[in-house]
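tool_call predict_complex ligand=iron/sulfur cluster
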Amino acid sequence: MTKTHCPYCSLQCGMTLAPLSPSRRTGNQVEVQAWPEFPVNEGALCRKGWTATGLRGSRERLTTPLVRDRATGELRSAGWDEALDLVAGRLAALRAERGPDSVAVFGGGGLTNEKAYQLGKLARVALGTSQIDYNGRWCMSSAASAGNQAFGIDRGLPFPLADVEQTDVLVLVGSNLAETMPPAARHLDRLRERGGHVVVIDPRLTSTGERADTFLQPVPGTDLALALGLLHLLVAMGAVDEEYVGARTTGFDDVRRSVAAWWPERVERVTGVPVTDLHATARLLAGADKVMVLTARGAEQHSQGTDTVLAWINVALALGMPGKAFSGYGCLTGQGNGQGGREHGQKADQLPGYRMIDDPAAREHVARVWGVAPETLPGKGRSAYELLESLGVEDGPRALLVFGSNIVVSAPNATHVTDRLESLDLLVVADMVMSETAAMADVVLPVTQWAEETGTMTNLEGRVILRERAVAPPEGVRSDLEVMAGLASRLGSPVPFSTEPEEIFAELGRASAGGKADYAGIDYDRIRREHGVFWPCPTPEHAGTPRMFGDTFATPDGRARCLPVEHRGAAEVPCDDYPVHLTTGRVLAQYQSGAQTRRIKELPDEGAFVELHPMLADRVGAHDGDLVVVTTRRGELKAPARVVTTIRPDTVFVPFHWVGANRLTNDALDPSSRMPEFKVCAAAVRT
Ligand code: SF4
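tool_result ok
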């Protein structure tokens, strides 16, 4: 029996992997069982978790390196030495000819902390390139940017998730947690059983919205205006906690002025939320002792995502909530290691420990841990989408190494990104299955999956947990860490790369020591004993930090920043040619690009669909089940219609787990986080 965690979302539910009797083995050697003592999910799992071992038995599992034959253009089997020699040789030649930034690295928010750390080191030490970023840039980066600006630190939830149960009013902005992380919905249910009130804000009435006491259905891309309008009312009602604002924040007078013109009628015109609902919600917030605001991708994946989160943080600060028990602001991170994946060096602008790469002291510290000179470390690279856009053009990278990401499905404006991938001299993908991105690669490297390897993840609460190896990988498969070490040595890295997760975690701890995300006091045995450890945890004696901001924020003066923001609206708004809003999101049975979950036979693989309101369906002459075509300025998608009354009549929804949705989405970027505007663009629908 091995206690471990689910391979998918940021809840990182605890589970037990138990050996199957030989008579029941059909490719799997283990089955999932509950781990009731793990506090985050208390034994509950969603259907993705229960079926997670399914991929082990999949015939689609890659077990040998593949190299594209130049003569036939087809992928053929190769030995590990041949594949790694080929990759290292071509990378070295490119570097010699065009410089280190001709090689780029793209990581993933599902990689363990050890892999994310080692990937950043591979890029900066072995390859010497500044060109590294990862798909977490497209996940919660706007909340990260806002958290850093307002609180001086970015930890998704600065409190344990179970605190939700003890608040009085929970405001969920753009989160469908009942479908994306179902075991978390128990906290909503318990909150309501206690008499608490749940407010859900979403253009679609999802199963999370069905649990709400108040449901607000704004126009996509107007969550910021809604926050400004609510704060306007709170100021007008005298509901601002002036003592808290005076003692624990700076800048609130500027914020107060900035919301003066957001009277309810104007907010209704922009957001579509009725004035009466605005007043009722403001009264609810004003009258509550404890208020918790949680944002997710619906609020964050916008070209004004950072400002949207800042606006909601301002609401929480005005009410005096951050740092108060069972109150405050938090972000519900999405990907499995969405939190840890952004802390240890695979971001374009960061070194391990959430240190900024342009900070001389940070460079000095990390270089010392790595055993290299600080001046040899490259500077800041391009953000994820900008990096992909630059592939193969002028001074852009000519080679890309991809670990833990399926860009072809998950990138915005995906047709354009696929063109850029095609223009490369060398595309290398490490994956466990032939994802859409791997299918384009010149070299595919088959790697282990979660049950076959050990490593830490940091869940949405900032709790560092340990996934333990339960079974041996199939013959022919190597871990990402072995792949990185194999490349580093062939590239003549000045320092050795370990392949042992525990050893790498100890090094990560030293590299993070003194940084914002300080893991120095955490080790594997301690994680096992304590059901995870919350960072920051600077020493073995430190208890870890489940709750933050009680006395001080992580800013130089210890006060939170109230930052005035203005509603700009979406980069694209409906027009004659594209008269409706398109929004995208997830469904219960699939995870991210679907590369894993679409291959698990127990999970329904229904394919993309187009959700639209009966009024819109009537207008375009579509019936439930008819094939409809959604068009945007970037592409089109044909898929069956689902006619539902739960979506706004001016909006269509497409899930993003299949090829197609992101051919439609907009690549307009948030100026601060560089988050693309996945969540809204202008579209047309026809039969
Ligand atoms: Fe838990 Fe998320 Fe896994 Fe479902 S997908 S079992 S909610 S970690």
